[in-house]
Design brief:
Elements lengths: L2 H4 L3 E5 L6 H14 L4 E5 L7 H10 L4 H25 L3 E5 L2 H11 L6 H8 L6 E6 L2 H8 L13 H17 L4 E5 L4 H14 L3
Parallel strand pairs: 1-3, 1-4, 2-3, 4-5
Helix pairs in contact: 2-9, 3-4, 4-6, 5-8
This protein binds thymidine-5'-diphosphate (TYD).
Thymidine-5'-diphosphate binds next to helix 5.
């Protein structure tokens, strides 16, 4: 086997709520496992041992935006130390539903918080995604997909202007680093979207 294929990879799925991240993440995990890779799937917020407690704090309360931001970052640091870094260290692929770019999109662009990049990097504890897949869908399509959800979070009710800022933030990240960030048009059926995701995983040496 080529050495490149043995390298563990950290792949993040980003996009607005209802973009189909968890569906694509599950498909990617199954595909990688069928190729003999060890894979872990995880998500933010919620992947660490304090994840469910923090989700509850974040989503059940109207917090000051700065406080909310710091809770997302605290959970990220715990998540990296407890789950992501150990998995990468033992050679597993890590597929993560949301990571630092959600903070850039939602807190920085969406809410207008000026968060220094150093602070975002601090919370990552030295880990950096090899690939960030932005699943881009129009807001109306995402809303339609979310209608079936029984328990929408406070974030699911944010308005159109907010999501337009979130979308521009992702677009800007892709424009700035087209190697690490890839946009996929995620409006189509899941299998068609996954064909694009799979091509990106192959590029990474899967
Ligand atoms: P969640 O219920 O996990 O749904 P999904 O990821 O499927 O959209 O909700 C996560 C919410 O948290 C989502 O609206 C984005 C938001 N979020 C932030 O605002 N900042 C962050 O750093 C992260 C990780 C998530």
């Amino acid at each position: 086997m080529a050495p490149r294929a043995l390298k563990p990879r950290f792949v993040v799925f980003e996009g607005i709520d209802g973009a189909g991240k968890s569906t694509q993440l599950a498909k990617a995990a199954a595909w990688l496992r069928a190729r003999g890779r060890e894979v872990i799937t995880t998500h933010e917020p919620g992947g660490s041992s304090i994840g469910s407690a923090l989700r509850e704090l974040i989503f059940a309360h109207e917090l000051a935006p700065e406080a909310e931001l710091l809770l997302f970052l605290a959970e990220r640091a715990a998540h990296v130390r407890e789950v992501i870094a150990p998995a990468l260290a033992r050679g597993a692929w890590v597929l993560c539903d949301r990571f630092t770019d959600s903070t850039r999109a939602y807190q920085v662009a969406g809410r207008g918080l000026a968060v220094p990049e150093d602070v975002l990097a601090f919370a990552e504890c030295g880990v950096r995604p090899d690939l960030v897949v932005w699943l881009d869908v129009p807001l109306a399509a995402a809303r339609a997909r979310m209608q079936g959800r029984s328990n929408p979070s406070r974030f699911d009710t944010l308005d159109e202007a907010f999501f337009a800022r979130v979308r521009s933030a992702y677009a800007e990240l892709v424009a700035r680093d087209a190697q690490r960030y890839r946009r996929i048009d995620a409006a189509g059926p899941p299998d068609a979207v996954f064909a694009h995701v799979r091509a990106l995983l192959e590029e990474l040496g899967a």
